[in-house]
Design goal:
By secondary structure, the chain is mainly alpha-helical. 73% of the residues lie in helices and 0% in strands. The protein has helices at residues 10-14, 17-37, 58-67, 71-78, 80-113, 116-127, 134-145, 150-157, 169-193, 198-205, 210-221, 223-238, 242-247, 255-265, 269-301.
């Protein structure tokens, strides 16, 4: 007797949706870029060689894999400019993430401790910048930071000498922190809002000063939000292109800008793809660390 067929339930199918999403929007585009990075360099005339000759069967596939080369990666390793770009991008992203944490933590803590009605208003104000184009928001900082801009006009009113911040690394940091601050505030707020604040009352009853209660109770409980916020800021900051292009000067060399130059100015798509692949592999490290931390947190809470 034939055993009855097991019906495929909707929950089982829905569990496949995230994998399908990753396959279509991450794995396939990455494989396409990786394939392009192993192609022969040519001046912006895709498709790039080698191509698979399907009519030749197995021999065509063998010829395709035999024609792949690593010249773009060799060139990337021999030019110190790109190593400096990677290091500079990591430094800008690390500094910007720390500044965003220092600014965003008090904001999130204040939002979590205020009244529910005020909390909704503050949340809306944090999200409000997303309603405007990212490019327009960054370009607005050009008007603020330029020599005759709003910043120097305000400094002149209080008798402070004017400063020239535009096209400096400081302007890039200002743009990075401003643009990615909501990505720091929202995870921190989510972690602080669900915290049991009776623990602080208990610590106060036991004679703990507020600063000690914060350091030994509040901050450890908010560490998941701190890690999530830092990763959400750090990862896009590393590959940022618009902010260093509009606000930065020659000293604000970042890898996102280098990729843009290779794609659109030099039109060397295989080499630009190699730069992008190495950048992505660099960012895999913090993502894996975050996943391991999440697994440990889930196991600890189980």
């Amino acid at each position: 007797m034939r055993p009855p067929r097991t019906a495929v339930s909707w929950p089982k199918l829905s569990a496949l949706i995230p994998y399908a999403w990753l396959l279509v929007f991450f794995a396939l585009p990455f494989l396409m870029v990786f394939r392009l990075s192993l192609s022969d360099s040519a001046l912006s005339i895709p498709p790039y060689k080698p191509q698979i000759d399907w009519s030749a069967g197995i021999d065509g596939i063998k010829a395709f894999f035999g024609g792949l080369d690593f010249d773009a990666y060799k060139q990337l390793g021999s030019d110190s400019l790109y190593a400096k770009s990677y290091i500079s991008s990591l430094r800008f992203a690390a500094e910007g993430t720390i500044l965003a944490l220092l600014v965003g933590y008090p904001m999130a803590y204040g939002m979590a401790r205020c009244k529910p009605s005020t909390r909704s208003l503050l949340l809306m104000l944090v999200i409000l910048p997303f309603w405007t184009s990212f490019l327009i928001r960054v370009y607005a900082w050009v008007g603020i930071l330029k020599p005759e801009g709003l910043l120097n006009a305000g400094l002149a009113l209080v008798g402070i000498p004017p400063t020239d911040l535009l096209y400096t690394p400081a302007a890039v940091q200002i743009g990075l922190v401003y643009s990615y601050l909501p990505f720091m505030v929202l995870p921190l707020y989510a972690a602080l809002e669900k915290m049991d604040y009776t623990l602080l009352e208990a610590a106060a009853d036991l004679g703990s000063p507020p600063w000690k209660s914060f350091w030994q109770v509040t901050f450890p409980l908010s560490i998941p939000g701190v890690i999530a916020g830092c990763l959400l800021c750090f990862i896009p900051m590393v590959g940022e292109f618009v902010i260093p292009d509009l606000l930065g000067g020659p000293g604000s060399l970042m890898i996102g800008r280098s990729i843009w130059m290779e794609f659109f100015a030099n039109r060397d798509w295989p080499f630009a793809s190699a730069v992008a692949v190495v950048l992505l592999l660099t960012l895999v490290v913090p993502i894996v660390l975050y996943q391991r931390q999440q697994v440990k947190a889930l196991e600890a809470g189980a």
